[in-house]
UniProtKB/TrEMBL annotation:
Keyword Nucleotidyltransferase: no
All residue ranges annotated as the Tail specific protease domain in the record: 102-315
Gene3D superfamilies for this protein: 2-enoyl-CoA Hydratase, Chain A, domain 1
Leader sequence segment: 1-19
Organism per entry: Mesonia profundi
Keywords: Signal
Full protein name: S41 family peptidase
InterPro entries: ClpP/crotonase-like_dom_sf (IPR029045), Tail-specific_protease (IPR005151)
Source superkingdom: Bacteria
Alphabetical list of Pfam families matching this protein: Peptidase_S41 (PF03572)
Length: 340
């Protein structure tokens, strides 16, 4: 047994040493881009529209001067720009590599929004004017235990739901730039109820995936991804105002999409960022990974939106120091307060 253990140790050490050597040599550049091209040519949503015979030799030629793997990742921008992969990205260690940014700049936002954004907003739930529930749902990544992460936020909402007699709710997505959708939608289960809430379509706009919430479970094509333990009555008929702006993107847009087709719902603010495509994680060599665009997002009625356009259009009239002076909030309160 001792001899076998020594052999295993030697083999493991040798393999690790070779892997480490590879990850710091010129050979690693070829290994990495071989895998990157392979994944994109097989699974990228717009793969048939990319002239791979033109772009791949160009990228290979551009890679020649690089002496190490990490610096070669700059060429991802060239690849993604050519492939129009503006919703995809590669992550390595603490760095993110994507196409050339073409989104909004600081001048497109109010001073109030920029000031709040600089604080890295986190999830908030509170009551405004003793009558209206307010939820700030920012972009976020899922933690190791999606259930626990989602349950904590759900419980905060439920605490207010069960202790206050509110006229309606405001869901603020102005800082939701994307991330993982599960911990965004699960806490909002009471508002969405037991319904299909969004879906995914292929390049031909045929639906290939239905996402449903059922009894607190998040189901993707009938497979349970995660869940919360719901408490009390649903709020799926309660008035809800969803606030968006041009920073609302990716999973933030899916969160808004989930409310499309819901009764007693209004959309207020600005059109969203326009990243209404579905991304999946794909692992790459040396601990890198990518988020790759592989489908279109659609609402519960199988409708695709390039952008989500609000019912009431409001630009740069934010007030996060006093939400009751925020024009978006004021319009939300008007909607909720109307008695039919």
């Amino acid at each position: 047994m001792k001899k076998i253990s020594i052999i295993i140790f030697v083999l493991t050490f040798t393999y690790s040493a070779k892997a480490q050597e590879l990850s710091t040599s010129q050979d690693s550049i070829g290994v990495f881009y071989d895998k990157l091209f392979s994944v994109m040519k097989k699974e990228y949503l717009y793969k048939e529209e990319v002239n791979w015979k033109e772009i791949e030799p160009k990228i290979r030629e551009n890679l020649t001067p690089y002496s190490d793997f990490q610096s070669s990742l700059q060429e991802i921008t060239t690849l993604f720009d050519f492939a129009k992969a503006d919703h995809s990205a590669v992550y390595y260690k603490d760095d993110r590599f994507s196409g050339t940014p073409d989104g909004p700049t600081e001048k497109d936002f109010s001073d109030q929004w920029l000031k709040k954004f600089a604080t890295q907003p986190v999830f908030e739930v509170k009551v405004l004017d003793h009558q209206f529930g307010y939820i700030l749902m920012p972009g976020m990544r899922s933690e190791k235990n999606i259930h626990e992460q989602s349950q904590l936020m759900y419980d905060e909402i439920n605490k207010i739901k069960s202790s206050e007699n509110l006229k309606g709710w405001i869901i603020d997505l102005r800082f939701n730039t994307g991330g993982d959708i599960w911990p965004m939608l699960l806490p909002l289960y009471d508002f969405l109820g037991n319904n299909v809430v969004w879906g995914e379509m292929d390049i031909h706009k045929n639906q290939i995936n239905k996402i449903k919430l059922k009894k607190g479970k998040y189901k993707s094509n009938s497979k349970t991804v995660s869940y919360i333990n719901p408490k009390g009555e649903l709020l799926d008929h309660t008035k809800v105002a969803v606030i968006t702006n041009i920073a609302t993107g990716s999973s933030g847009e899916i969160t808004a999409l989930a409310f499309k087709g819901r009764e007693n719902t209004i959309f207020i603010g600005e059109k969203t960022n326009g990243k209404t495509t579905t991304n999946y994680r794909r692992n790459l060599p040396f601990g890198a990974y990518m988020t790759l665009t592989m489908g279109y997002d659609c609402d519960r009625n199988e409708k695709f939106y390039e952008y989500i356009i609000p019912d009431i259009h409001i630009v740069k009239q934010d007030n996060f120091e006093n939400l009751l002076l925020d024009k978006n909030i004021q319009e939300a309160i008007k909607f909720i307060s109307i008695t039919e």
